[in-house]
Cobyrinic acid ac-diamide synthase
Amino acid sequence: MAVIAVFNQKGGVGKTTTCLNLVAALSIAQRHPIALDMDPQGHLSLASGLKNGTVQSKSMAAFFKDKVPLAQLLHDTPAGWQIIPATLELSKIDALYGSDPQAAKMLKQGLAEELALTGAPIIIDCCPMLGVLTLNALLACDRVLIPVSADFLSQHGVNRLDSALNVLERKLQRKFERRIVVTRFDSRRKLSYDIYDKLKQRYGDLVCKTRIGETVALATSPMHGLDVFAFAPQSPGAADYKLLTMELMESGFV
């Protein structure tokens, strides 16, 4: 069972878009993935076609607050894969458990007890804040996928995030296998190529060969509660995420 945390502290880098379409591509490949929405904004849940009113009592918040087993919180999406959704109630978890050093291990224990036997890849859409929720995701995961949009500020942000992960590795005495995927890549702009080249120079093979172009279908599909494969299967965005998924599968990352 691969557990992958999709994480970046900077907004607008395609974190949720990457979660949504990676899970969809894995489902198409018959890998039967499970998505965990750990961001209180619940954007992955909405983009997956779930409505807030139907998930209030069966969400990630119920796991943390009421100790409801993860397997009882799974929802089927219209596309056929499963998700444990998020609601705004999840935003209270940091205040509830912020002083408890053991709280960061809750998700790891929950996955081991409830979902490990499924063997399904688990993709976690992390909260962008480095608090209790994100620490739960990082302690539970085997690997970290870092989406980075092709702009200067995002490139600068990934350097800080990499440093933060290095600090966590020393504190936790474990390694995070990681990959960086460049998103919102505009092939018409020299800047996009410059950002990609600089990331490759610094991080080498940790940077995925596949680059995710900025396309209308990727931006529009979540409005309809659909992944890009369901919304526009012949689009460049669908092709990009199919290639990314194949690359990650072939490398054993997922």
